[in-house]
Amino acid sequence: MTETTPTLTTNDVTVTTDHANRPYAVIPDDIARPLAIASLKGIDPEVRGIFFESDAHPADSWAATTVRTIFEALLASPLAREDVHTWGLGQYREFDGGTFYGFIVGESAWDPETRWWRDCDRARDLCVRGNASIAPACRRAFAGTCTF
Predict the structure, then answer these.
(1) 30: nearest Cα among 130, 116, 108, 147
(2) Buried/exposed 59-82: b ≥16 CB within 10 Å, e otherwise
(3) Which of 5, 22, 130, 140 could form a disulfide with 1 if both were Cys (CB 3.0 to 4.6 A apart)?
């Protein structure tokens, strides 16, 4: 990313669930847009289906740092304290890596009243695709890298 790409803090992340009790990390739009682009890096735009992984972003990259901040906000949330394993982040505390089995979206794409998307078709640029993952320390050369 560029030097003008904003830095995310845990205070910028709203942790919530939708009407089906699935976890969401709602982040500022100016962070969601470049993170959504990062989540598609290396995925052929013509590919069809749902199970594709982005290129790995280096451990010291903006994308990896941003995802770690989101993980910290999620784990600090009262919603996740009941059982961090439910959201896939149980390994993050112990092994410095894990996967968030939830959604990351930009603020203007999320309606807190209905706990659902405002307009999914118009908000595609604010939807981070895939499941954000940080490779654990045991992955040696891949440790700390981020994929979606």
Answers:
(1) 108
(2) bebbbbbbbbbbbebbbebeebee
(3) 5
What's the burial of 9, exposed, middle or buried (CB within 10 Å: 0-12/13-18/19+)? exposed
* Residue 10 to residue 62: CA distance in whole angstroms: 15
Region of residue 96 (phi > 0: left; psi between -120 and 50: alpha; otherwise: beta): left
- The Cβ-side half-sphere exposure at 50, using a 13 Å CA radius, reads 1
Per-residue pLDDT tens over the stretch 46-103: 766 666 778 889 999 999 999 999 999 999 998 877 776 778 888 888 888 999 999 9
DSSP string of 68-130, one letter each residue: HHHHHHHHHSHHHHT-GGGGT-HHHHHHS-EE--SEEEEGGGEETTTTEES-TTTTGGGEE-S
Q: What is the largest CA-CA distance in the chain?
A: 44
